[in-house]
Amino acid sequence: MTDILAELRQLRAGDLPTHGGHTLAYVYDSGLSEVDEIAAAAHALASSANGLDPTAFPSLLRLENDLVGRAAGLLGGSAGTVGTVTSGGTESCLLAVLAARDARPGITAPSIVLPDTAHAAFHKAAHLFGLRKIVVPVDAETFRAVPDAMAAAIDESTVLVVASAPSYAHGVVDPIPEIAAAAPARGVRMHVDACIGGWVLPYFAKLGADVSPFDFRVPGVTSMSVDLHKYAYCAKGVSVLLHANAELRRTHYFASAAWPGYTMLNPTLQSTRSGGPLAAAWAVVNHLGEDGYLRLAEVTREAVTRIRAGVENQPGLRILGDPDSTLIAFTKTGTADDGFDLFTVADEMKVRGWYVQPQFAHGGSPLNLHLTITAANHGSETEFLADLTASVTAAREAGPTSVDPAVAAFVAALDPETLTADQFAGLLTAAGLVGDAGLPERMAPINALLATAPEPLRERLLLEFLGALYTP
Ligand SMILES: *Cc1c(COP(=O)(O)O)cnc(C)c1O
After folding, report:
1. pTM across the whole model
2. What is the CATH number of domain 33-285?
3. Hey, which of 87, 195, 225, 326 would you mutate to test ligand 1's pocket, going by the most ligand atoms within 8 Å of its Cβ?
4. Segment 128-138, tens digit of pLDDT
């Protein structure tokens, strides 16, 4: 047994670090070791229990109601507010869309209205559940949704309007009250995606930050999502979808008695649900409590302020929009400093032990690097910024990554619809994405090439890459 665990430990050593604030995407670290210990112990206590039947495992029912109640309290819910614990933010968003669609069975071709900064989870929902997407450009300077444009996009087929608090890519909160004002008048639901901000913005507000209204206190908001595996610092696999009342929730519940087995009753997309993540989240949320989260928000806010100021003072870089929360996206300033590229900056940061996340240009948003800042970043801001300066210098010395114009032209002309599996395999090899040596250390040349590909082609290329990765 120790051999097996040693092997697992060795495999895990090849991953990005999940602790210590060096990975500025994907992971959320409170910096408190006892939080991990209590989560692991609680997870082990309940991972064999099955949320499929709350009457068989009433402990899980109790834990879920506790967490939903806690989330509702944090987000301005009322006595009627109900919710569901899901496996993550994407599942919460999917269920919000499903509930909205199925509440309007009379609409034959339902649609959702999204700002173009909405999380990709809503694109997935539209894809899975067959809804039309009406994607509305955000303001070019602030990256916030434009209420008038959102209102104008609503039509008779619209079942849901979405806004973010904040958006993942730029960390800005959409003008929720103005957007929500238009929805109910048209009989349309309004979802606030607070997956990443819902457990930290309320504490920022308590610390005196100027947080614009974004929760159930805003009239017209019918549902909200908040991920506990983000700023509630819980182990992965837990999010909460809240509905302003039980009637709004009913249409994502599913029952089937149409088979010889147990009557399947599912509040979520899953049926069997591990009690592990739920119990771990319950333990962490109760262990940290209001004071714990307030302290974590305080140090996180300090880290954000310092890192933001450091990036702003860095010649050649500029922050996109005016971030409201814990996320920062920065790009290059205009022309004078064009002698480097951001993909190389990301690679240079990796060499120095930091993971920052490249974001491709989309709509009015230029190519940029994203930082998710958590409590664990507090204390190493100076080191982070010094390494960022060194990385920009190194990227300048390296010069911009050039894509062979002939290759770029070839890629741009490809039609993902007509490419065969063999052609994709050849392309992936040519792009350096698959090969005998595993993933290359430096991603800049690959990212630069991917950046030239139109979005549908980039999606397909990366899916083929994923398929190649997931081959035993
Ligand atoms: C993270 C995130 C999601 C999706 O959450 P997952 O837990 O990764 O499925 C949705 N919306 C926003 C704004 C997010 O930040």
Report:
1. 0.96
2. 3.40.640.10
3. 195
4. 999 999 999 99
